[in-house]
Design a protein that fits this description.
- It is built from 13 helices and 12 strands.
- It is α/β, with parallel strands linked by helices and 326 residues long.
- The strands form 4 sheets. The chain has a 5-stranded parallel β-sheet, with helices on both faces. Strands 1-2-3 form a 3-stranded mixed β-sheet. The chain has a two-stranded antiparallel sheet with strand order 6-7.
- The longest helix is centred in the C-terminal third of the chain and has 19 residues, at 234-252.
Length: 326
């Protein structure tokens, strides 16, 4: 299975379900995502759409958005392939955790020379900066972690703000921003669950493009890991991917809840640790990486999964100390 890049010739050759590697941000991992999802995000931004990217934690939602938009060659290369004009891209990040109440989505209290006054919020300032820029630039307001920290009242305030391309300022001036896209990511599933706050149906309807990010299939995960850790043995790669699938299955059945959902970068850490410390048994490395948060109550089940995928049982702490020469 081939992994493509966002370089136009390579991207054109990729099919909708093929994997594409984004050029990473400095010091960050490169997201490797199906082309069809990247097409939908870029098309949504160039059309001023409201894009909601949802999925289980660990599916690279936030990393994908940041890498696609903040490493501009990724975005502009895909624009070229999709036949979209190359225009400057302006991104406004507005984490909702900064807002204590619905009124702060437009104004916030500030102090100057000992007096308080209302100043534009991050969101309103972004929209005003884009007034009249349609056709000249692409712009997106990012709403990271939608639903993780904000109240239902803030969701209600977002309904009108996101839904309107024309805003009426306090002074009576109209702000016209039909080209500004809204891009939110969250752990909401299609039913509105998996988050700390239930998603408001009216807010959900405002998003006209919904993309669900899931964990790649095992074959895709193996391909990605062979790219991220090419020195690792294929058998080792396949075994850790099987372990990850077993962990997810156990969590779906209500077990191993102390273990965070495994990620590709967790697999990579396991593989690189095995390469750097080959004298350590796989179970010792597993309980230091992908199973690092496993509780004592879950350790027996985790050991069963290790025996199934790696042919080893979970060792005791004494055995681990013996390996380390302690």
């Amino acid at each position: 299975m081939k992994i493509y890049t966002t370089e136009p010739t390579s991207y054109r050759a990729a099919g909708p379900g093929d994997l594409v590697r984004l050029e990473p941000l400095p010091g960050s991992h490169p997201p490797i995502i199906e082309r069809q999802k990247l097409d939908l995000i870029v098309r949504g931004i160039t059309e001023g759409a409201r894009v909601h990217i949802s999925g289980e934690t660990g599916t690279a939602k936030t990393l994908t958005i940041r890498t696609l938009l903040l490493r501009e060659e990724n975005f502009h290369n895909i624009c070229e392939v999709l036949g979209r004009p190359r225009r400057p891209l302006t991104i406004y990040s507005c984490p909702l955790a900064r807002f204590d109440g619905p009124g702060e989505l437009t104004f916030r209290r500030a102090i100057k020379d000992g007096t308080t006054y209302d100043e534009d919020s991050l969101i309103l300032a972004a929209l005003k900066a884009q007034d009249g820029q349609a056709g000249k630039t692409y712009a997106a307001v990012l709403l990271p972690e939608l639903g993780r920290t904000q109240s239902e009242m803030i969701q209600g305030a977002l309904v009108e703000l996101i839904g309107d391309a024309v805003l009426l300022e306090a002074e009576g001036r109209l702000v016209h921003v039909p080209h500004v896209a809204w891009v939110a990511d969250s752990n909401y599933a299609g039913t509105g669950t998996f988050s700390l706050v239930t998603q408001d149906d009216s807010l959900r309807r405002r998003f006209d493009i919904s993309i669900e990010m899931g964990h790649p299939a095992e074959e895709q995960e193996c391909t990605i890991l062979e790219h991220l850790a090419p020195e690792a043995e294929p058998e080792e790669v396949a075994a850790i991917v099987r372990l990850g699938s077993e962990i997810r299955a156990a969590r779906r059945d209500g077990g191993l809840l102390s273990v965070p959902p495994p990620t590709l970068f967790g697999y990579e850490q396991f593989l690189r640790t095995r390469l750097d410390l080959p004298h350590l048994p796989p179970d010792v490395v597993a309980f230091a990486t992908i199973l690092g948060h496993c509780s004592e109550e879950d350790r027996a089940l985790a050991g069963d999964l290790l025996a199934r995928t790696h042919g080893v049982a979970a060792g005791t702490e004494d055995e681990a100390d013996a390996v380390m020469g302690l």
